[in-house]
Amino acid sequence: MSNFHVLRHETDRVEAVSALVLYAQDGEPPIPTTVPVLVADVFDRFVRVGGPDGEVRRWLIASRRIENRFLVPGDVLAVPTE
To answer: Which phi-psi region, left, alpha or beta, contains residue 76 (left: φ > 0; alpha: ψ -120 to 50)?
Structure first.
């Protein structure tokens, strides 16, 4: 996960988007690869929970939506080899 951006911020709610790039897949390890198997945007909605009775307030993920992004033929996404 990288490139985290806050889209909306309120006192007890935050909406954010980040990028997810996976370089692994199910199978017998190790499976060496330098090309990602998934590129996606991740949309999270966080809520702050806890109370005024002394309970520690913390942020929790209320919902998460993952939208796959597909590459144009010829695009290259790879881990630098040098």
So the answer is: beta
